Amino acid sequence: MAKYYVRSGELERIVTATCPLGAAEIALLKVNGETLDKFFYIDERGFRGPTQIDNSIDTDYLPEHSLLLDEVCQTEGEDGFLDQNSD
Questions:
Q1: Within a 10 A sphere around the Cβ of 82, how many other Cβ atoms?
Q2: What kind and span of H or E run contains 13?
Q3: Backbone angles phi, psi at 32, to 5 degrees
Q4: Which helix (H) or strand (E) holds 57?
Q5: What percent of the chain has pLDDT over 70?
Q6: pTM of this prediction?
Q7: Beta bridge partners of 52
Q8: Exposure letters 11-20 (e unless 16+ CB within 10 A, then b)
Q9: pLDDT score recorded for residue 76
């Protein structure tokens, strides 16, 4: 299992998971009132994601993986809820 840094809007979580999608799912389960963006930025090197400065995008901090919120939310267990285990 790898350590992932997950960012989406106000949400920033460090989680352990087997894959980037699993990391996003775990981070989503740990939301505590933060506003989410429509993208999840997942990286093993630290919190990354595009930042906008003067109408240009700083590409020095692009993440290894980006997932749409819809992609993260559609992964469900048999009971219709997100699984807490990403194995």
A1: 16
A2: strand 11-17
A3: -135, 60
A4: strand 56-58
A5: 66
A6: 0.65
A7: 57
A8: bebebebeeb
A9: 52
The token pair that represents 25 in the structure block:
């799912």
Show the tokens assigned to 36.
């989410």
Structure token digits, residue 18: 């087997």
Closest CA to 77 of 19, 2, 25, 28: 25
Q: Which value, in Å, is the radius of gyration of the alpha carbons in the chain?
A: 13
Q: Based on the number of CB atoms within 10 Å of its own CB, is 10 exposed (0-12), middle (13-18) or buried (19 or more)?
A: exposed
Please count the CA atoms within 13 angstroms of the CA of 64 that sit on its side-chain side.
14
Which amino acid would we find at residue 74? Q
Per the CB < 8 A criterion, the answer to whether 39 and 68 are in contact is yes
